[in-house]
């Protein structure tokens, strides 16, 4: 049974060490300087699943990884040359199975890194048999984090009682307090290296607050999500970074447009252009990400031979790499840096009542209700007969639905929660059906575009073209088949039962 | 869980030294290993500096309600535990005779440990008895140290005859030569001739070395205090030969899964 303690005053480490070394027959190992890193996905999925994955780096560059249930006395350790990027990257089946479930395909990132001095003491009995190993880990103080010292006691199996007796004697020295949480969590709490990440961060909004202040808070929180995901996109860790980035970007863009009268005209005009450009530059990579993910499924039933599959996959991967490099370049450009500066300045201005439009001081709920009414009407009054036939128009309708959803999600706190959730769920069904159809349309177009770029005499073109033609036919057929689902979903959305939810939700006070 | 037993009808052939050192090799290879000392002399416990435990005495052992795990003690080495012997084991035979299904007792006792250990090594006392029958029943492999002397070879032949008569699979037997003194002509001749007629004999053998004898003084596996000595190298080679024969991961390639870091 392993026990963990926290040294109340890290400055007392020397006193504690002397005490540990003075108990029974003790031997102390030379001090080692190590570094501990706690790994988790960016949205802390391991922590949510009560798992702790930590890595200890030795001086020689070796990494010892430990995976355990939070608070558990035992875990599984293994050596690795480098940190695993994904749960799926592990070669050992049991570890991979334990990590893959909670992480899915999310990348593993360093949530907290802390160098520490390891003081290891062994306790022996009268026969010179080791009965316990005690590790005192002293994490050094940093500018923004205090020093912290943790003691873990590992009695050798069968010697727990002897060890407990010795520990009781030590406990009387009033130096230690027992840790109720996993040491990794204690370390994370003490260091506070990473603030909790939410793809849709909660923002405290009230019905009567000025619309400009609310918009400033939302812009600040969601821009934070964008900035948090930038590095993941640049490092090409996981397609989910771009997904979250784009959800935050589209939410901001949607509120920016729907509540435009809250902002001053110059601010509106400047940021509208910048946000649109950012949407465009990220959109290409996102489309290719989705195509890369879907391609194996498309090819599965197509009867493509392995050479064709490999050639087409490589074509898409190359295009994706190009798009990623282009986006990385954009992220590093003066234009993007200027946008970030301007955006942060806009948030501060809005907080201080500057750069506001004529509805800047209006009550938030009133402004949001106006926008919701407008947006809801646009969805219902959309030329559905034409949208069913034309993919581009259907996509426009989908965007209207999305904007309505972003409004509902962003300002959910102003409304009855249960009602709002039902309204969002109804909208989500339509969006999913439309999104699937649009994805097929985009993938169809992308494949055509990628193969059109190939020279006609090229060997790659000769390999890939037959399968692309086949896929085009199949994707078009699928798109038509999906059309029925979209109609069904939209009819459900327009049904009186669903619209009654919206009527109740959009009642003016 | 793979169960090995170091067994020979004859005493003083190096069963305990083999059990302790092979268990150490297994633990180094990343296998969670338990040595169960069935010999009332308790020599394995002596090598690991662990004294007999009251929870491991015969009464507790045969008590159905008693959890055997309570008697297990950790050694000084990761992944290696010991279930120490007790002097009361001298009466184990008599006690087993009074039970129903006396040859299945060890199997029942070991079953709950299947999740805790990858390898269990039973260090047996030198006799052919009810305990031996239990060992034959539960062990996947019998490691049989043979000293290259006529008496020891005779004991091995007796064991084979017993196995044949009792319809026990002879493939379980993994004989190897122990305490081989290559200065002696008799040893050299016996090793060569016997191995030629018995393909089941492992090619690795343990030489007679002072370092193995010093285990009693150091109270540790020979690899723990003299890793580069001929004795330590011989046990490492024997471990590899056992792995090759049994298909167990020998540690030169990673163990299929993470290793429990609990001590």
Basic shape of chain B: globular
Largest sheet descriptor of chain A: 10 strands, antiparallel
User: Number of DSSP helices of chain B?
Assistant: 12
CATH architecture tag of the largest domain in chain A: Alpha solenoid
Sheet of most strands of chain B: 7 strands, mixed
> Any low-confidence stretches of chain B, pLDDT <50, length ≥5?
253-263
Question: What is the N-to-C order of secondary-structure elements of chain A (H for helix, E for strand)?
Answer: EHEEHEEEHEEEHEHHHHHHHHHHHH
CATH class of the largest domain in chain A: Mainly Alpha
User: What is the rounded distance between the termini of chain B?
Assistant: 19 Å
Low-confidence stretches of chain A: none
Count of DSSP H/I helices of chain A = 16
Structure description:
- The complex is a heterodimer of chains A (about 500) and B (about 260).
- Chain A is α+β, with helices and mostly antiparallel strands.
- Helices cover about 60% and strands about 15% of the residues of chain A.
- Chain A folds into two domains: about 5-190, Hypothetical Protein Pfu-838710-001 (Beta Barrel), CATH 2.40.320.10; about 210-505, Alpha solenoid (CHAD domain).
- Chain A contains 16 helices and ten strands.
- In chain A, strands 1, 2, 3, 4, 5, 6, 7, 8, 9 and 10 form a ten-stranded antiparallel β-sheet that branches.
- In chain A, a hairpin with a 5-residue loop joins strand 7 (about 110-125) and strand 8.
- Chain A is globular.
- Chain A starts with a strand and ends with a helix.
- The mean pLDDT of chain A is about 85.
- Chain B is α/β, with parallel strands linked by helices.
- Chain B has helices spanning about 15-30, 45, 60, 90-95, 105-110, 130-140, 150-165, 185-195, 210-215, 215-220, 220-225, 230-245; strands at about 1-5, 35, 75, 80-85, 120-125, 140-145, 175, 260.
- Chain B has a seven-stranded mixed β-sheet, with helices on both faces.
- In chain B, strand 6, helix 7 and strand 7 form a beta-alpha-beta unit.
- The longest helix of chain B is centred in the C-terminal third of the chain and has 17 residues, at about 230-245.
- The two termini of chain B are about 20 Å apart.
- The chains are: A alpha+beta (about 500), B alpha/beta (about 260).
- Strand 6 of chain A pairs antiparallel with strand 8 of chain B.
């Amino acid at each position: 049974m392993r026990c963990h303690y926290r040294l109340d005053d890290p400055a007392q480490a020397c006193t504690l060490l002397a005490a540990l070394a003075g108990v029974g027959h003790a031997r102390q190992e030379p001090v080692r300087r190590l570094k501990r890193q706690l790994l988790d996905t960016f949205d802390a999925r391991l922590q949510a699943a009560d798992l702790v994955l930590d890595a200890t780096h030795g001086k020689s560059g070796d990494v010892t990884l430990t995976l355990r249930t939070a608070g558990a006395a035992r875990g599984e350790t293994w050596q690795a040359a480098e940190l695993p990027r994904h749960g799926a990257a592990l070669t050992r089946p049991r570890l991979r199975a334990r990590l893959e479930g909670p992480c899915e395909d999310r990348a593993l990132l360093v949530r907290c890194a802390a160098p520490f001095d390891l003081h290891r003491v062994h306790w022996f009995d009268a026969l010179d048999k080791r009965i316990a190993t005690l590790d005192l880990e002293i994490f050094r103080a940093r500018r923004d984090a205090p020093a912290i010292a943790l003691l873990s006691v590992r009695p050798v199996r069968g010697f727990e009682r002897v060890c407990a007796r010795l520990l009781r004697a030590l406990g009387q020295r009033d130096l230690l307090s027992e840790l109720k949480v996993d040491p990794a969590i204690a370390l994370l709490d003490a260091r506070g290296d990473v603030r909790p990440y939410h793809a849709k961060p909660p923002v405290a909004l009230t019905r009567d607050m000025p619309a400009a202040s609310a918009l400033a808070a939302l812009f600040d929180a969601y821009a934070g999500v964008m900035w948090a995901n930038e590095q993941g996109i640049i490092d090409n860790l996981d397609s989910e970074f771009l997904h979250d980035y784009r959800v935050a970007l589209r939410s901001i863009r949607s509120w920016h447009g729907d509540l435009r009268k809250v902002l001053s005209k110059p601010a509106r005009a400047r940021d509208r252009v910048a946000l649109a450009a950012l949407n465009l530059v990220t959109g290409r990579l996102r489309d290719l990400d989705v195509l890369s993910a879907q391609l194996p499924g498309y090819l599965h039933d197509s009867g493509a031979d392995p050479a064709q599959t490999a050639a087409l996959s490589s074509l898409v991967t190359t295009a994706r790499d190009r798009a990623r490099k282009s986006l990385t370049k954009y992220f590093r450009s003066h234009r993007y840096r200027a946008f970030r500066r301007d955006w942060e300045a806009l948030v501060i201005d809005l907080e201080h009542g500057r750069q506001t439009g004529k509805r800047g001081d209006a009550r938030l709920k009133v402004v949001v209700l106006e926008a919701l009414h407008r947006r809801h009407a646009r969805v219902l009054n959309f030329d559905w007969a034409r949208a069913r036939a034309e993919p581009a128009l259907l996509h426009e309708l989908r965007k209207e639905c999305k904007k309505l959803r972003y409004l509902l999600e962003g300002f959910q706190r102003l409304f009855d929660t249960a009602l709002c959730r039902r309204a969002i769920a109804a909208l989500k069904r339509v969006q999913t059906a439309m999104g699937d159809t649009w994805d097929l349309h985009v993938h169809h177009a992308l494949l055509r575009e990628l193969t059109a770029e190939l020279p006609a005499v090229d060997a790659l073109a000769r390999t890939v073209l037959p399968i692309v033609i086949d896929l085009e036919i199949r994707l078009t057929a699928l798109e038509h088949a999906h059309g029925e689902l979209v109609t069904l979903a939209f009819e459900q959305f327009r049904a009186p039962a669903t619209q009654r939810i919206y009527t109740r939700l959009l009642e003016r006070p | 869980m793979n169960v090995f037993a170091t067994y020979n009808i004859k005493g003083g052939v190096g069963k305990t030294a083999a059990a302790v050192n092979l268990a150490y090799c297994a633990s180094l290879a990343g296998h969670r290993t338990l040595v169960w000392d069935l010999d009332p002399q308790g020599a394995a416990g002596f090598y690991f500096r662990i004294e007999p435990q009251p929870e491991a005495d015969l009464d507790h052992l045969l008590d159905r309600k008693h959890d055997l795990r309570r008697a297990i003690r950790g050694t000084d080495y990761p992944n290696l535990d010991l279930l120490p012997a007790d002097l009361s084991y001298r009466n184990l035979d008599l006690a087993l005779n009074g039970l129903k299904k006396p040859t299945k007792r060890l199997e029942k006792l070991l079953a709950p440990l299947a999740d805790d250990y990858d390898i269990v090594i039973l260090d047996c006392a030198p006799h052919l008895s009810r305990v031996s029958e239990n060992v034959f029943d539960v062990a996947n492999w019998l490691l049989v140290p043979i000293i290259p002397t006529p008496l020891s070879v005779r004991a091995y032949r007796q064991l084979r005859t017993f196995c044949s008569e009792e319809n026990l699979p002879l493939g379980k037997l993994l004989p190897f030569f122990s305490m081989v003194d290559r200065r002696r002509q008799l040893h050299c001749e016996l090793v060569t001739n016997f191995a030629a007629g018995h393909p089941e004999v492992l090619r690795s053998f343990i030489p007679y070395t002072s370092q193995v004898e010093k285990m009693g003084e150091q109270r540790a596996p020979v690899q723990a205090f003299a890793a580069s000595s001929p004795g330590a190298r011989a046990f490492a080679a024997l471990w590899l030969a056992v792995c090759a024969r049994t298909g167990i991961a020998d540690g030169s390639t990673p163990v299929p899964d993470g290793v429990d870091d609990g001590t």
